[in-house]
Write a structure and sequence with these properties.
By secondary structure, the protein is of the alpha+beta class. The protein has helices at 2-19, 79-115, 120-152, and strands spanning 22-24, 28-42, 45-49, 54-59, 66-67, 72-77, 155-157, 162-166, 174-175, 180-185, 189-196, 208-211, 222-234, 237-244, 255-271, 275-278, 281-287, 293-303, 312-317, 324-326. A 6-stranded antiparallel beta barrel has the order 2-11-14-13-12-15. The chain has a 4-stranded antiparallel β-sheet with strand order 3-10-8-5, with no helix packed on it. The chain has a 4-stranded antiparallel β-sheet with strand order 7-6-4-9, with no helix packed on it. The longest helix is centred in the first third of the chain and has 37 residues, at 79-115.
């Protein structure tokens, strides 16, 4: 009976080993990461400008508000526009009366010219007067349309989707055409890194940058890509732009810590789940000859999260190229 129990345990152990996850280790190029500070910035900060001059009579946003493109931000009032439209309406009525009278005179001159009772010169003068009256009416109507369009431009609209960063005016402020009523930052945020110049030649466009997951309220780290390297050194530093997904609603100008590549070295990286610790010594299960599983001691290094391995761990010694690891 005891022999049967031992045999059952051995069979279960073989089944567990067959079902265990395996990994063949190979050396990889591991980046020597350097921690730098990055600033969250909007790719574009666009001012919402007043199109007409006047006084702010309605302010619909404040700092931090989210806006959509075309949303009303403020209303500018210019009483002179209403007076101008009223004046043009009165002038248009007078022009319409003059046009009606000139058309009546033209009709009479045309009748007299056909019957021979009137001269051709009188007919030509009446026709010219009618054309001048029509042109004058058209000009006044165009001026009124311009005034109405200016009145319609009293609303200051958001130039793009984003968040309002700054509102330098209040109700009652006087603005001129082109004055900025608010600054809107697009939601397409990016990271502006400041890299020491001694590492500038080691940073390349497309390199991966690692961001603390805690910076984004996440447990796992986030990763981004370097999109632009500025070709000028200022105060011993090179400015680099990087893009990262899922940055959320962060403060523009917020500083966060990121890691950039400052060279590379060959090393082994495995998931932390393959490592077991007994009495202060780290081991891994290694598949040996004849499908035997043995424990070998290793020396662990620092955690090196990677896009394809978020729980990556560098192994300093104990592994060789081609070793097959088995999960505990």
């Amino acid at each position: 009976m005891r022999t049967l129990s031992l045999l059952s345990l051995l069979l279960l152990g073989v089944a567990d080993a067959a079902l265990a996850a395996e990994m063949t280790v190979h050396p990889v190029q591991l980046a020597d990461e350097k921690a730098v500070f990055a600033t969250v910035e909007s790719r574009n900060v666009v001012p919402a400008r007043a199109r007409i001059g006047g006084t702010i009579v309605e302010l619909a946003v404040r700092e931090g508000d989210a806006v959509k493109q075309g949303q009303m931000i403020a209303v500018v009032s210019d009483p002179k526009l209403l007076l101008q439209i009223q004046s043009l309406d009165a002038q248009i009525q007078g022009a319409q009366s003059r046009l009606a009278q000139s058309q009546l005179d033209l009709s009479r001159a045309q009748t007299l010219a056909h019957t021979g009772a009137g001269s051709q010169a009188t007919f030509d003068a009446a026709a010219t007067a009618a054309r001048v009256a029509q042109s004058s009416l058209n000009s006044l109507q165009s001026q009124r349309d311009v005034a109405r369009e200016q009145l319609a431009e009293a609303a200051v609209l958001a130039p793009s989707d984003g968040r309002v960063l700054n509102v330098p005016v209040i109700n009652g402020s006087v603005v001129m055409p082109g004055d900025a009523v608010a600054s809107v930052a697009e939601r397409d945020y990016q990271l502006r890194l400041s890299v020491p110049e001694r590492h500038a030649h080691l940073v390349h466009t497309g390199d991966t940058v690692r961001i603390d997951g805690e910076e984004f309220g996440q447990t796992a780290p986030s990763f981004g890509k370097i999109s632009l390297i500025y070709p000028q050194i200022q105060d011993g530093r090179v400015h680099v732009d990087a893009t990262a997904a899922g940055m959320g609603d962060y403060f523009v100008g917020e500083r966060i810590r990121v890691w950039v590549s400052a060279g590379s070295r060959s090393s082994f990286v495995i998931p932390q789940g393959f490592v077991i610790t007994r009495f202060g010594v780290d081991y891994v299960h290694l598949r040996a000859a004849q499908d035997r599983v043995i424990d070998i001691p290793i020396q662990r290094g620092q955690a090196v999260p990677r896009p394809e391995m978020s729980d990556g761990l560098e192994i300093l010694s104990g592994l060789s190229d081609g070793d097959v690891l088995v999960t505990p």
